[in-house]
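Retro notes - structure team

What went well: the batch runner handled both jobs without manual restarts.
What didn't: labels got mixed up in the shared folder, which is why I'm recording both outputs here explicitly, each with its sequence directly above its tokens.

Job 1
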Amino acid sequence: MDAYYWNKRLNPFWLNSIRQLYNSGGNITEFLREEFDESSNSSEIIEIAYDAQAGNVFSEYTTIPKETELINSNAEELYSHLIPHLFQGCSLMDVGTGELLTLSLICKNIDIPIDVLAFDISWSRLYKGRKIWDQNIPNQNLTLSSFVADMKKIPLRSKSIDITTSMLALEPNGRNLEILLKELFRVTKGKCVLFEPSYKHNSDEGKKRMDRLGYIKDIEETAENLGGRIIDVIPLKKVLNPLNLPACFVIEPSRNDITNEHNADRFTVPGTDFPLTLDEEFLTSTDTGLVFPILKEIPILKEDAAILATSLFE
């Protein structure tokens, strides 16, 4: 199935039909689940769906006044919940950041120096998002490092991030919630402040929609089973979709003895602590012989983007 899947993914005529489906208002993830006989959204399905949508969020934000007001209002509320957990010099990572729109609207109000990291599974969304970030962020105290990655295997050292946040990014990963939270806990040493759908607070119609689309459920229970501690769950008031009621989940990850506060090499082989070193337009791993490309200053740090190049290190 994997070979068939990727052959279709790379077929330009098939990709064009996906874009046409999206432009006509169709749901790409539902179509792909049926096409590949999947009961829930795989990373590949999410990547294709998000790539097809790249640029549309910002386009709606800038051209539809109602959307502009709603997104600005939502960002203000997210900021109010996130800012109490930030401190001078901390690292903030946004997983599944998309086009960086909401993150940039939040960060433009942050007046302390912090280190911002943001990744998405779609290179196209990040590429467009870098321009949005530059437009929205006048604050030179903020440094941004963006990269392509899969949430299942984050290319950062264990316990290297102070605060991890997500904004409906975990949402479509219903069957992988435990895997994703475990990986977020691995890299986070402070808190996870997650803005995600709340099945418990949703309406019956909203719950049916979440079930149909394969959305996540039971964040609190899953986090506790992984050793995390639920500090707070706050339903959000500014809602983009009344059938998708989110909450702010503040979680303290499980702890271990690993700390990585001062590392010369930021990135690692996805899901591990093997460091990556910059070598021209690539990031290389002497431990594994793997090499990862950088396209337009955006590192592509997914397993399926790796090149096995052991001779490079001889």
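Job 2
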Amino acid sequence: MEKQAPQVGKGIASQEVLISLKLRECEKEFQEQANRFVSVTRLCGRH
């Protein structure tokens, strides 16, 4: 992924970009945690 340098005077816009990047990161992490949880639950459900 290429990061574009925030232009001066577009502080709010670059802030939004940062926030959306963070959100995407958190989403990915949450997805991984959820997948792990699901697989663990499947394992426990087999017993």
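One thing worth noting from job 2: Residues 11-47 form one domain.
We'll revisit the folder naming next retro.
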